[in-house]
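Could you show me just one protein sequence together with its fold in token form as a worked example?
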Amino acid sequence: MKSLMLIVFILFSGYILTAYSQEHETIMITKSEEMNKVSFDGKWSFVTEWKRSSQERMRYDNGTEIQLRIAHQDNFVYVMLNHVTDTKIDENIDKAIVCFDTKNNKGKTLDSDDYCFISTLSQNDGMVLQGNSNQTSDQLVEIDPHAEYISIGGISDENDRYSKIPHSSFEFRIPTDLIGRSDNYGFYVAVYEASSNKTYSWPETERPNFVSTPVPDSWGNLISPDKSLPEFGVYQLVLLPLIILTIVLARFWNPQLLKVRN
């Protein structure tokens, strides 16, 4: 009976969490002890390099595919955007952007708690932008990058996990000194493909060009289920009723289970 209860709990938990992720456009970020081994060259450099990270496959109606890998370790969030189908390489033009709403307040303007990080193909000096709602134009302004911030765009090779055909990819190491430590960020990523003059984003949103970043109320959520990027968050709130349900079912099937022994 206990085995049956465990199976029911796992299946029900998976259903609830999947439904929640789909409805709220949520990506889970995992803790990894392997990220400090990443070789920052803008590509998947060896078999296990990004293997210990969360994966989100971004697919679009025209067949475009982008693989997002993300994890955190110590004082950094690590992000890779692997533009698998961009085989028409445009060095110094193709770009990727990663944005965090550090308070996840879904603001209608880009405020000082919003940060975006830009990487350009074949460059290793990416930009850091911060929201500035006091400006009448350009809601994002460039700031000095943190000393330990890394962003680099590169061209894949035979070691790539998804395709042996050379394509663009981008790697980021983002210090939590900038974005803070939270288990629930607002999150937005996009890649600009120069050959088609198109921008592909997550979440998908209308976007006239790469430099026109949408406001945070249209961004998704980045959640740390292991709670090691702290604060009690949405993921735990979803799990709590499931745990309570399990206890109730346990009591129903075995009334002696929760009795205090004399």
Observations:
- Residues 128 and 145 are 6 Å apart (CA to CA).
